[in-house]
Write a structure and sequence with these properties.
The complex is a heterodimer of chains A (about 400) and B (about 130). Chain A has 17 helices and 13 strands. Chain A has about 400 residues and is α/β, with parallel strands linked by helices. Chain A has three domains: about 5-170, Aconitase, domain 3 (2-Layer Sandwich), CATH 3.30.499; about 180-280, no CATH class; about 285-405, Aconitase, domain 3. In chain A, helix 9 links the parallel strand 5 and strand 6 (about 215-220). The longest helix of chain A is centred in the first third of the chain and has 16 residues, at about 15-30. Chain B has about 130 residues and is of the alpha/beta class. Chain B has one domain (about 1-25, about 50-130): Glucose Oxidase, domain 1, CATH 3.50.30.10. In chain B, strand 5 and strand 6 form a beta hairpin. Chain B starts with a strand and ends with a strand. Classes of the chains: A alpha/beta (about 400), B alpha/beta (about 130).
Chain lengths: ~400, ~130
């Protein structure tokens, strides 16, 4: 890779050991992908829950933060943590989990990282602008930033996003390059979803068809413009099922006013998707009637989603735990507007700063006796099978009903 | 049989191959305490991956593998190497941090060319995988 004067200085250790370690890591990754150089980034977003980090990762963070002068050079924020410190008891998180989380937080603070603890930073912190190069580290965040905002980011795992924060740059490969942003797969949709769960299912289906990170689906035929929360669920599910980082909705997303703008006019229609295909994906997560817990998470809920949920909770009394997970930026507003109180009046819990699957899902299943989990998140049902759950996909309305009756109506 | 990859990193290793035409995500697919594939729908569900050369199709899922490979290596429950037809940045970033051997991109489907259970030798410097038998 070609290095400029600042990068050579970092590599020589002139800006301290942390910057040197970070740049060495970025060069290893950049050379693996054939990057010719670096691109400056305006912000970084670090995924670093301690279930992923483990004790070894926390020690690595602490040793990095112990270096004199170790400090991020661009605004650097965090993805959800592994617990809600104020509500750890609700999840029965033991002291060792809370302790490990506190160590990670302390190391990040020493590095100058802002503990935003959110996977919806494009809704709550700062959405990047068209063409802005960033280093984002949550698949849902990256796909939204690339597709809806037309910003530029690769998937930056925790170590790489933190490295980008420490150096202010990232290797220029993948979705930083024009050539990688063109459509590779043309999909015709004959049915337009309305609910968040349906948008998620359509996204999951397209992700499954796309199949890998380098695939860029161009989707045509949508009869309505999806809102920001619909696009959030659509993108998060697509990224989860297919590891996809960029999609184009023809006539809707900024880079694809027309098929030819992303060269999709040169592609044959590879797949047609109608309501039947979406229902088939949903039916794969519909085997249980009795449920143990209801979860709204993945991604964290917006203020509008929480408001809708509160309306559904009014007048009910839950017999099963209902967990609604949001960001630390949304939670105070939900408190101020009485939304939290309405959900809690029905027996639900509003958690913040965490995400269910990033919060030791296996341990909390064992501690609480949870296996049959109902949710409207397609991303969540795709993840939780590996953690021993029997995840059930349903609308927000049906999930709330299930929290009241203990049974999921089909 | 010798296969040449387009991308490689890590140190030379030799070990038994565990092969399937399926994806890979440390968070989605593995019980990282027991060291087995735990996702019920994965083609290697129930099989132990520790110390094996995993030969799979592509990277799946999210960004957690970037940290998890490092933690798995530290706890002695990592695969010996990853060999894939294609990869997302996360597995490359994770392999770099964990100093795990990674080989990616072949002529043809690598999962159809390496027999399950065969002993394979990987030389990342030459981007080569040799099937020893």
């Amino acid at each position: 890779m070609r290095l400029d004067d600042a990068e050579r200085a970092m590599l020589a250790g002139e800006l301290g050991p942390a910057a040197r370690i970070a740049l060495q890591h970025q060069i290893a990754v950049g050379e693996f992908f054939g990057a010719k150089g670096f691109v400056p980034v305006t912000q970084a977003h670090v995924m670093a829950d301690t279930e992923s980090l483990g004790e070894a990762g926390v020690r690595w963070l602490e040793s990095l933060a112990a270096n004199e002068g170790a400090r991020v050079r661009v605004p650097t924020i965090t993805d959800p943590r592994g617990t809600d410190f104020a509500r750890a008891g609700v999840l029965k998180h033991p002291a060792w989990i809370v302790g490990l989380e506190r160590r990670a937080v302390e190391a990040f603070r020493r590095l100058g990282v802002m503990m935003t603890d959110t996977c919806i930073n494009y809704q709550t912190i700062q959405a990047p602008a068209r063409g802005e190069a960033v280093a984002f580290g949550d698949t849902g965040v990256v796909i939204y930033a690339n597709s809806v905002c037309a910003a530029r980011s690769n998937y930056e795992g925790g170590p790489s996003a933190l490295a980008a924060g420490l150096t202010g740059r990232t290797p220029r490969y993948g979705f930083h390059l024009d050539a990688c942003r063109r459509a590779t797969l043309r999909i015709r949709v004959d049915w337009t979803p309305t609910s968040l769960n349906d948008w998620g299912a359509l996204g999951g289906l397209i992700g499954r068809l796309a199949g890998n990170y380098w695939a860029v689906p161009a989707v045509e035929g949508l009869a309505a413009v999806p809102g920001a929360d619909a696009l959030k669920h659509f993108g998060a599910a697509m990224a989860s099922f297919g590891s996809v980082a960029l999609f184009h909705l023809v006539g809707i997303t900024p880079e694809a006013p027309r098929l030819r703008d992303v060269r999709a006019d040169r592609l044959p229609v590879a797949h047609r998707i109608g309501e039947a295909e979406v229902r088939a994906l949903q039916s794969a997560y519909a085997g249980e009637e009795e449920i143990d817990v209801v979860v709204f998470s993945a991604p964290q809920l917006s203020l509008y989603e929480l408001s809708t949920l509160a309306s559904l909770c009014d007048g009910r009394r839950f017999v099963r735990p209902l967990l609604a997970v949001t960001s630390p930026q949304v939670k105070p507003d939900a408190d101020r507007f009485g939304i939290t109180a309405r959900i809690e009046a029905a027996g639900g819990h509003v958690l913040s700063g965490m995400c269910f699957y990033q919060s030791y899902a296996r341990e909390i299943a064992e501690a609480n006796g949870w296996k049959r989990l109902a949710t409207n998140s397609v991303k969540l049902v795709n993840i939780l099978g590996g953690y021993g759950y029997s995840p059930q996909l349903a609308s927000m309305e049906a999930c709330v009903e299930a929290a009241q009756t203990g049974r999921l109506a089909r | 049989m010798i296969l040449t990859a387009r991308q490689a990193m890590g140190r030379p290793v030799t070990g038994p191959a565990l092969v399937a035409h399926d994806g890979f995500s440390a968070r989605y697919d593995l019980d990282r305490i027991a060291g087995v594939f735990s996702r019920p729908t994965h083609k290697l569900a129930g099989q132990r991956y520790v110390g094996r050369v995993l030969v799979l199709d592509t990277a799946k899922g999210g960004v957690a593998s970037a940290w998890m490979l490092h933690d798995m290596a530290a706890r002695g429950v990592a695969p010996l190497a990853l060999v894939l037809n294609s990869v997302n940045p996360i597995l490359a970033q994770g392999a770099a941090l964990a100093e795990l051997t990674l080989l990616v991109g072949f002529d043809g489907d690598v999962t159809a060319q390496v027999p399950n259970g065969a002993t394979v030798e990987i030389d990342p410097a030459r981007r080569r995988l040799r099937v020893l038998g």
